[in-house]
Amino acid sequence: MAAPGVAACRSQLKPLAPGAQALRGALVLLGRRGLRQPVLRVVGGEARGERPAEVPRAERRPSARLSAEQEAVLGAVRSGKSVFFTGCAGTGKSFLLKKIVGSLPPKSTYATASTGVAACHIGGTTLHAFAGIGSGKAPLEQCIQLAERPGVRQHWLACQHLIIDEISMVDGKFFDKLEAVSRQLQ
């Protein structure tokens, strides 16, 4: 006997389009190829000799295209300009940010965010971890010494594109220290 909700769900199913095939026992996985490209995989039908289908996420959703305004921001970034973009919730800021990160050279691009959750969302690290100066509350000289450690200094010197998500959450004094540290290390 099926659960009461199952019968209600089955009654809402639409019939297949002519020529379409149903996959019984198919498994749908949403994952990522590396850190860059979200992918939807449909696994099933192997008994009939079918191969699993991989559909890039951008091809599944027609809304996954950049707007003219987003294209302009991406073009400005690609041309080497410093860019600040903002917008209301749900306007595609994170989507655009991921496109920007994906379009820049990975060895010289560092995607950071003010919080760990925001950093995970963009596939980056926290700004504090990148900077290597801890909380930044130490005197400037001590922050510079912390940033001059070999691994940290390499990040600073290799960085050509520093992306900071949720920058409004970064304390102004910390940002000023970052600027002073970066000038000293260059």
What is the helix tally?
A: 9
Give the termini separation.
71 Å
Helical fraction? 40-55%
**How do the strands of the widest beta sheet line up side by side?**
1-2-3
Order of helices and strands: HEEEHHHEHEHHHEH
Main β-sheet: number of strands, strand sense, barrel status? 3 strands, antiparallel
Oligomer designation: single chain
β-strand percent reads 15-25%
Low-confidence stretches: 1-11, 23-50, 57-62
- So what's the overall shape? elongated
Radius of gyration: 23 Å
Structure notes:
It is built from 9 helices and 6 strands, in the order H-E-E-E-H-H-H-E-H-E-H-H-H-E-H. The radius of gyration is 23 Å and the shape is elongated. It is an alpha/beta fold. A 3-stranded antiparallel beta sheet has the order 1-2-3. 41% of the residues lie in helices and 16% in strands.
Keywords:
9 helices; elongated; three-stranded antiparallel sheet; disordered N terminus; alpha/beta; three-stranded parallel sheet; 16% strand; 186 residues
Task: Summarize the entry for a quick read.
With 186 residues, the protein is an alpha/beta fold. Helix content is 41%, strand content 16%.
Helix and strand topology:
Blueprint: H1 4-11, E1 27-33, E2 37-43, E3 53-56, H2 57-60, H3 68-78, H4 93-103, E4 109-113, H5 116-122, E5 125-126, H6 127-131, H7 140-147, H8 150-158, E6 161-165, H9 172-185
Parallel strand pairs: 4-5, 4-6
Antiparallel strand pairs: 1-2, 2-3
Helix pairs in contact: 3-4, 7-9
